[in-house]
Specification:
3 helices; Barwin-like endoglucanases
Length: 169
């Protein structure tokens, strides 16, 4: 006779959901990654850390995770606020997996509170702290521009001051 053995592993949907959430909590930000963040709102200020004026669609984030210029899609903020945001600001309380969205109305920002959100990284910005000499710079050191020599102004000897004229009226 014939004996056939077969084994199948079926995952519980709750187990699979927990695994997906765990990946979202531990994943490194990068284009195409889905992450879980805590969102808050702010309303004060006129100019962001990047130098642009604040407006709807701008967010503040930890530059070590989401550098300035990063573009993210945020879900679970609520129907009024879900959408695409550009990270153009930082802040003293915006550390780790926290994102702060700008709102024009301060009452709305206070009512917003803290919310657990899903964030989808569309594009990662540029962190100037992560840049350094490239391979080309090392291979071709002549590409670096040298600063022009400083112009020396000889000190004036006593008695050679220029005459002072009265101001025109």
């Amino acid at each position: 006779g014939f004996v056939l053995l077969y084994q199948a592993t079926i995952l519980d949907s709750r187990y699979a959901a927990r695994q997906a959430l765990l990946r979202e909590d531990q994943a490194e930000p990068g284009p195409g990654t889905r992450l879980r963040f805590t969102a808050s709102a702010y309303c004060r200020g006129e100019i962001t850390a990047s130098g642009v004026a604040v407006r709807t669609g701008i967010a503040a984030a930890d530059p070590d995770l989401l550098p300035t210029g990063s573009v993210v899609q945020i879900e679970k903020l609520g129907p009024k606020y879900d959408g695409v945001y550009t990270v153009m600001d930082t802040g003293p309380v915006v550390k780790g997996r926290r994102i702060d969205v700008y709102m024009w109305n301060c009452d709305e920002a206070v009512k917003f509170g803290l919310r657990r959100v899903q964030l989808f990284v569309l594009r990662l910005g540029w962190n100037p702290r992560n840049s350094g000499p490239t391979l080309l710079d090392k291979l071709m050191p002549w590409r670096e521009r040298k600063a022009p020599p400083a112009v020396r102004v000889p000190p004036r000897s006593p008695g050679t001051e220029l005459p002072q004229f009265p101001a025109a009226r």
